[in-house]
Amino acid sequence: MEKQLKIGLVHLDVRYKNPELNRKTLLQLNEKAAQKGHQLIVNTEMAIPGYSFQSLEDIAPHVETDSGPTMTGLQAIAQKYGVFICLGFAEKDAESGIYYNSALVLDPGGNIVCRYHKINAETRWACPGNGVQDNFFETPWGRIGVLICSDTYHGLMPRQTALKGADLIIAPANWPRGGLDPAELWRVRALENGVYMVGCNRGGRDRTMSCKNAPSCAFDPHGRTLLNRESSSSALMTVNIPLEKGRLARTKRFERLKQRHPERYRPIYLDMRHVTYGGGDYTSYYDLAPPGLYEISCYTQVATLQSILNIVQKHQIPEKSNLGVLLFPELPHQKNVMALLPVIKQQIQDSKKAVCLGFRDEAGASRQIFMTPDGMVYHHGNNWTKECISKANALPGGDCYRTIVDMGPIRAGICTPDELTHPEVAVAHAKLGCDVLFSCAGHIEPSWQIVAAAKTLERINIAVAGHNMGFICQPPESHDRWKENLNTASGVCRAMLDSNETRSKKFQDRLDFMTLLCQT
């Protein structure tokens, strides 16, 4: 019984508009990989023509069909050595003449067992793929999923691939470091889905883009690095993935996906593209309060109710801020928490302060409590059910169950730390107009922090207070990494935000919503 899966990554120095040289080098490296015993060989995105084309006419001489010279050459290698091969290339559909940025997978018999068209395709020449296409193939080691480069940027495409049963996701890519590092993002996708994540990048220089520092990477379901390597020149890289009884491990994926609550994620299917038609934004669409400045303060190492009360009393909101939100770490139990709520409520009523607390109930489940300046107290927890929803605004003292709160210049979402690991939560709240997600946590692991921070890619701010760490993250500009305020010492992490910056949003909408909302 096999103990490991040997994967070869053909990290190619792709020469722009030089298909003959690229094909020759690619076939040589694929044969070398097969000879060295690699069982699955992954090639880069757009490996034969290069990447940056300006029009249909520009790329027309460089597209191939699935019976072209590159695929024919790779089929011979797959058959000769009995290996799986994945190729990223510019494909011309033989029947329609449509051009795609494609990834094709050959089995050991040379048969095409997966044909994936990039969803976030290059708008100047490529037709985007169908969101419900089957982007996986079967192997003796388990089901393997395929995505291409920026299709891993937003969280729901890797998530739906994991929901389809993939325990390993491979991604041909043209993605250099600088701005958002693809290695960091691919690690997040491995962690949040409990899968192996392998990205095959490239070297060299394209028309305008340098890929000399583009990393080829592999991460296990725990986010541990198996490979993170750059090469300006062509290189064959190896990743050995351990197998359990000859199969890819799936325990972590089952654990991650079992925690989902699809009934809470239905807003993800909303088509929000029309919001901006006519120059509108989420303020006008949802009739939100006018946007403006607000301050978030995430306190760390605050362990007693009295210390929380002291901070609330002393905290001063800057004059220019329309609202100040104070977040505190999760308390270990709910003893006396409820008794403190009326005291805090009295302290902040008719002020510009809001307070977010967390604790563990008798069953160990996370509970979040949010108190607003107008005297409302909102409760939320992991076992939030349809019964809780029906109790909205029915609790004594103005309390209610809700995950979305409008106050001052913001619409805010409340979620537990467990919920914040799921991309569906961020997308659902963002599509409902939320500017920020708040959560109170216990001890925060660095791997959990990066998974939570990456939710800003769904165009929503994230603020979390924990015992050992507090952080406030904002959506990135262009292709940059998200903005981050982080405190790992005793004290406070603080930032002044502007809700003007989160009232215009764009989403990945070519998705398999049936899989995302029906699969558990």
TrEMBL record:
InterPro entries: Aliph_Amidase/BUP, C-N_Hydrolase, C-N_Hydrolase_sf. CDD domains: nitrilase. Signal peptide: none annotated. Keywords: Hydrolase. Transmembrane segments: none annotated. Residues 5-243 form the CN hydrolase domain. SUPFAM superfamilies: Carbon-nitrogen hydrolase. One of its GO terms (molecular function) is hydrolase activity, acting on carbon-nitrogen (but not peptide) bonds, in linear amides. This is Predicted amidohydrolase. It comes from Desulfocicer vacuolatum DSM 3385. The lineage of its organism: Bacteria, Pseudomonadati, Thermodesulfobacteriota, Desulfobacteria, Desulfobacterales.
